[in-house]
Please model this.
Amino acid sequence: MNKFNLKSLNSSTTMTQILIHQAHCIATQDDQDRELKGGSILIENGLIKEVYTADQFQTSAKHLLSEVDQVIDARHHLVIPGMVNCHHHMVQSLTRAYLPVQNAELFSWLRGLYPIWANLRPEMVQVASKVAMAELLMSGCTTSSDHLYIYPNGVNLEDSIEAAKATGIRFVATRGSMSVGQSKGGLPPDRVVENEEAILKETQRLIEKWHDAQHGSMLNIAVAPCSPFTVSEGLMKESAKLARAYGVRLHTHLAENDHDIAYTLEKFNCTPTQYVEKLDWVGDDVWHAHCVKIDAPGIALFSQTKTSIAHCPCSNMRLASGILPLRKLLDAQVNVGLGVDGSASNDGAHMLSEARQAMLLARVAKSLEPFGCDTGPQEMTPRDALRVATRGGAQTLGRQDIGQIAKGYCADLALFRTDTLPMAGGSIHDPVGALLLCSSQLTDYTLVNGKVVVERGVFKPFELEPVTHKHNEFALALTQ
Ligand code: ZN
Model:
């Protein structure tokens, strides 16, 4: 069982050192993709100070056992870098499994939910974001973006920023927006869209107030008009100018399903990737959610311009949007990260499960023409999926300090027990393969910025039960 030696109760103390000791396996995701049996990790000041093989620790670092503030015995754990969630709408946790749209495709699903979301209030966003973040942290995600694009009744992006501070997750808050309502040919009702000038002004304020670009930053801001069918070309162009003036990233939805493609063809007379090229929405500072229906010229464009994609397999299956040609994209050197997407189109925020689904769905893609390959299960190995969920996500969010377990990187780690029921018989053969192939479990420990957020399966930042209770009250109020 775990040996737990806690000298300091305050894990946020500046010089706190934590030792992850003698792990069953560390899947580092480093440049050599090392998997270390019996390895150890020393954490200091929120960063990884050293990674030891079993031999290195024995010969040069045993003294640490009596010197550090906390030792986490990891003999029964697989340690991975904290996974990175690249697309989410956390407020949608309030409308999970909402019966009237359970079986709807994207556009009718949105039309059914816009009037509900129009009733959102700031306290609902705060609680829903806390729920979503806690869920992510417990499933092995340590950095998440969130795309909040609806601002009724005084809702503000700062409602979700406050939730990130309360949960301890590393956060990329994207200032979403909608400006083209039904009267102008858009999808959302007019009462939930905003004035474009106000959107840009508020986005600029948020960047100036909150964006932190430093190594180890806990908060980035990105600029994120919602989609081709909810904002104008003008807002897209102005958003790109604003983002580039401040060196922040750009995010939107693109090519999600056939209706989305048809809308862009009809309204803008081009494909979605031609549209974003025209708007200057390509480059290594841009990531697009979904891109399920990306075509061959689009893949080439994204490869040349180093534009990233947030792949959301569960949402794409739930809404029957289609299958992303993941293997084709990776083979074309397009960077792909994973997103759990909004909790009303998933209906979960389990990052490990999302990686598992990405692996399984890519294998099914064999049957999808013209992108299908004949390789079948080799389309996506468990290790490929883990790479996409960690380093792929870090690159998608433009972070050079997360996504791998290596010296100098942020101490963002997920520890999964290898001796559990779901892993029985699997982790014996191959703990890394078993993590993705066996049923997805929750972490035993999650560390963010060197701070223990989940400890022996317990979420530490606050009590979950009252927050969940409040969340359910709000969910009911919202739909009545
Ligand atoms: Zn989305």
Observations:
- The chain has a mean pLDDT of 94.
- The pocket of zinc ion is lined by residues 87, 89, 147, 253, 289, 341-342 (CB under 6 Å).
- DSSP finds 16 helices and 20 strands in the chain.
